[in-house]
């Protein structure tokens, strides 16, 4: 075997192995990188007959999973959506941006609307709603995920929406 032939074989193997190694590295990175927000224990997705039907209390405020009914329209609203309804939106792959009217100025609500409304218009499953009594002025929720924001952070809001919007959480065949 000539030196040239050995060199060509080595180059051939490198052409195959280097991209394969890069793919493996990217898969591991994607699977292990931190996801936005914090995890909240899954309370299931039992369907209720009405928002007033009795059920166990939610394990977070606002809720991120659990018993629910109905579904709210996507987009922005000036009224708080009942917990039992908004959870269905999360199950359907939605993200909700909640703000506490007692902690957030009108100008901040306008900025939040400027973030959420264009996404909704493009067909994204997002809601902006007032929610009284939040721990922080702004809270983002998705199915079993929550991020609390002490101030408006457009980058974090967009990252959260990108990470979680569109993932269907219905249990099939149950």
TrEMBL record:
Keyword field: Membrane, Transmembrane, Transmembrane helix
Compositional bias ranges of the Polar residues kind: 40-52
Domain of life: Bacteria
One Pfam family here: DUF3105
The protein's name: DUF3105 domain-containing protein
Higher taxonomy: Bacteria, Candidatus Magasanikiibacteriota
Classification via InterPro entries: DUF3105
Organism the protein comes from: Candidatus Magasanikbacteria bacterium RIFCSPHIGHO2_02_FULL_50_9b
Transmembrane segments: 12-31
Region (Disordered): 36-79
Transmembrane keyword on record: yes
């Amino acid at each position: 075997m000539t030196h040239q032939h050995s060199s060509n074989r080595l180059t051939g193997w490198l052409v195959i192995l280097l991209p394969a190694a890069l793919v493996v590295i990217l898969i591991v990175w994607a699977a292990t990188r931190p996801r936005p927000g914090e995890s909240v224990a899954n309370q299931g997705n039992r369907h209720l007959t009405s928002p007033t039907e009795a059920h166990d209390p939610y394990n977070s405020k606002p809720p991120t999973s659990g018993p629910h009914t109905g579904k709210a329209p996507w987009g922005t609203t000036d009224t708080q959506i009942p917990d039992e309804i908004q959870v269905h939106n999360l199950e359907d792959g939605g993200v909700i941006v909640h703000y506490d009217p007692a902690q957030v100025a009108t100008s901040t609500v306008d900025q939040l609307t400027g973030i959420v409304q264009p996404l909704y218009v493009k067909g994204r499953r997002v809601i902006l709603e007032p929610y009284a009594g939040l721990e922080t002025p702004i809270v983002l929720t998705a199915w079993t995920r929550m991020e609390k924001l002490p101030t408006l952070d457009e980058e974090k809001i967009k990252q959260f929406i990108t990470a979680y919007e569109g993932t269907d959480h219905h249990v099939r065949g149950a």
